[in-house]
Specification:
The chain is mainly α. The chain is 69% helix and 0% strand. It is flat, with a radius of gyration of 31 Å.
């Protein structure tokens, strides 16, 4: 559902609410006469029933956008407020006296259907399996951060930032990017907000890891300003843990505004220090100011996701760039497969493909895990065509001699079969439930088993060739899996 959903609500008031499907694809070409207006010929607009239904229409127009962008759960205060208001509206519609007139009864029925549709849409999104999956991953991240970062700081201890913690956060981010939203605005918002906060926590933690490796601050005896900067550094360390707790919803007392005020006061304190004439101390103060700025940039996350261009990555310039590359890749892939079917091995758009890889490498992901994943998948698509062309060329150039080791010849036979299967995988455009998918998966698995059965008999060249062939077959399987996992950004 789009932001302009309820700009056309009046024209849809006479139809049951459908979760915004009619409005997702733009408003109607022409707005039909409003059902309420159609009744004005038979009933004066001052008729009590018509006046009350008009009031309901206004309330629906007010609550509709809130319902269609609500991204929380059923136990959220905002959900309960919306549910309560919609239920009240439904009861008020039911109490409208139609005086037994069919026209008034029809208008009341349509009004009730609209309110019921909003209630249904609100509940569907708050209880959607993907929304619950997002919440479960968020809770898992909270437990991890609370145990490893926040609790040690509260206990007066030292937080140890290990590679294990960084890897665990990265794994959670990856799992969040794989949650399906079905294009629903509330689900996209919920996933975006969870990802934004977790990425911010990751950034803060990585910043702390870098700070731990810095040289020790200058001695206080060197300059009177150094002691003040050291004290600010201690406060920054505490603020970093407070920020992590805020981002993960683990702080019941602090607020983003309060922490922002504290950090700003630290900046003012640093700005007031006289460090003229001492480059080393100026650099030290600059480093601490940059630390504070790095924390401040994460304190505006309360409004993240309210802007469509933020959570709707289809509007993101980097995603558009990646999609343009993918369209070009699709065109090149079709050409490669067409020439392959004709037995023409001379068509090798490798320069174009390498140029696309360079283009993808220059795409700005802005540390967004969804954009990073979209770029990675586009890179895999390009690399799949390049490896296919390389193998076809190697098979065409191959001239086995009489002294070739039998095991080495067996590996090449499997590679020939893998080349044919890869052509089918490149052209596959189905789903995992399709018989052709299962057939391809089974045939590729058989080739892996055939490679496993090859005995190198101590021949090092055969060992290396078999190892590379196994990796090649696994890459084809992974590519087939990627094409059918229905990933979305």
């Amino acid at each position: 559902m789009c932001a302009n959903v309820f700009g056309v609500l009046k024209s849809l008031f006479g139809k049951p609410f459908d979760g915004g499907k009619r409005m997702d694809h733009g408003g109607p070409q022409q707005q039909p006469q409003h059902p309420m207006e159609q009744q004005q010929q038979a009933y004066h607009p001052q008729h009590p029933a018509m006046m009350r239904l008009y009031e309901v229409q206004k309330e629906v127009a007010s609550l509709g956008p809130q319902v269609c962008t609500f991204s929380g759960l059923q136990n959220d205060r905002e959900y309960k407020r919306l549910e309560r208001d919609l239920t009240r509206m439904l009861l008020e519609v039911d109490q409208v006296d139609t005086e037994g007139k069919m026209e008034l009864q029809g208008a009341r029925k349509r009004a009730a259907q609209e309110v019921e549709g909003l209630l249904r849409y609100l509940e569907e999104n708050a209880t959607h399996p993907s929304r619950l999956a997002i919440e479960e991953l968020s809770n898992e991240a909270r437990r991890l951060v609370d145990e490893r970062v926040v609790e040690p700081q509260r206990s007066g201890g030292v937080t140890e930032i290990s590679d294990e913690l960084v890897d665990a956060l990265q794994e959670l981010i990856l799992r969040l990017t794989q949650v399906k939203t079905e294009g629903r605005v509330p689900l996209r918002k919920a996933r975006y907000r969870a990802l934004t906060r977790l990425c911010a926590v990751q950034d803060v933690i990585e910043g702390r890891t870098q700070q731990q490796t810095l040289s020790l601050p200058l001695s206080g005896e060197t300059h009177e300003a150094v002691h003040c900067i050291n004290q600010v550094m201690v406060k920054v360390s505490v603020a970093r843990s407070q920020l992590v707790a805020l981002l993960m919803g683990l702080s019941g007392r602090d607020s983003c505004a309060h922490l922002s005020r504290i950090l700003t006061e630290m900046q003012v304190e640093l700005d007031a220090l006289d460090v003229s004439g001492n480059a080393a101390i100026r650099n030290y103060r600059k480093q601490v100011v940059e630390e504070i700025n790095g924390l401040l940039k994460h304190l505006d996350l309360e409004v993240e996701g309210d802007d469509t261009r933020r959570y709707d990555l289809a509007q993101n310039n980097s995603i558009r760039e990646i999609e343009a590359v993918r369209a070009h890749v699709s065109h090149l892939r079709e050409g490669v497969l067409r020439h392959c079917m004709m037995g023409d091995v001379g068509y090798r758009p490798k320069a174009d493909l390498q140029g696309l890889l360079t283009h993808l490498d220059q795409v700005d992901t802005a540390k967004n895990p969804c954009i990073r994943e979209a770029r990675r998948r586009a890179v895999v698509e390009v690399q799949a065509i390049i490896t296919f062309l390389d193998l076809r060329e190697a098979l065409a150039r191959r001239q086995p001699g009489p002294s070739e080791h039998p095991s080495h010849r067996a590996v090449w036979l499997v590679l020939g079969s893998l080349s044919d299967l890869q052509a089918q995988v490149l052209g596959f455009d189905g789903k995992r439930a399709d018989k052709s998918y299962m057939m391809l998966e089974e045939l590729l698995t058989k080739q892996l088993l055939a490679l496993d059965a090859v005995d190198p008999q101590g021949d090092e060249v055969t060992k290396m060739a078999r190892k590379q062939a196994v990796k090649f077959a696994q890459n084809i399987l992974n590519y087939l899996d990627m094409k059918t996992d229905e990933w979305e950004y």
